[in-house]
Amino acid sequence: xxPNGSYTTQLQAGLGMVAETLALLRVWExxxxxxxxxxxxxQAGVFSRATAxxxxxxxxxxxxxRFLAHEGLAAERMQVLVAHHVPPExxxxxxxxxxxxxxxxxxxxxxDVFWPRYHAxxxxxxxxxxxxxxxxxxxxxxxxxxxxxxxxxxxxGYLIGCCSDFxxxxxxxxxxxxxxxxxxxxxxxxxxAYDLHFAGCGSQAVVHSPDWRLFGLNGQxxxxxxxxxxxxxxxxxxSSGELVDIAWKYPSMKECLHAISQG
Length: 263
What we know:
The mean pLDDT is 92. This protein is mostly helical and 263 residues long. The chain has helices spanning 18-27, 34-43, 52-67, 69-83, 88-102, 104-119, 127-139, 149-165, 186-198, 203-207, 219-230, 253-261; strands spanning 124-126, 176-178, 235-240, 243-248. A hairpin with a 2-residue loop joins strand 3 (235-240) and strand 4 (243-248).
């Protein structure tokens, strides 16, 4: 599922914020609107050092776009995975997926800048690389209005920081960040495949979804990955050239989440 909308500065609300996401998931309930979630977080002392305004920003600008679309479907699934102690590395990658879906600027930076540099064998990615990406985006009309130079620099920092939060770049307080090995985990691949399936994608659309590009994969690499994942009996995949057919085992995402939680 491709991210939607123009480029915004919304990443400033929380970057990757995996720990904060987990904290909000502990107090969120189905049907809870972002403003109520912020109130609950403050009342429960979830962010002990954060102001009420900061809690509102995290709930409305960070958590809601990523996890509360489609009546909170993603948040409900995340709660199940967290409750069943799915490895934190997998939780982080799923948070990465939803962040990229919600923030088009981040998704495009990952696919258009990070992965080409990664596959070219580059050792670092810098804030200047991010600034060049943002300026190209402005020239291409990706923003509703041109950003001031100060905004370009701030958002460039957010992009680098967000990549660092999710493990694509080293967590170092410097302009140039070391590019780190980043590979989708098998349980995350299983999650994504079924997520796309239950979103209405056919077998071909599942394999060729832009979401896989967030993990640096092309169509043939996705097929190879899914064949590996299928060896545990989660589905049956057959391919011939460009044609792919997947026979799904689980009738609902609930069963898929249960399988993921079993390891």
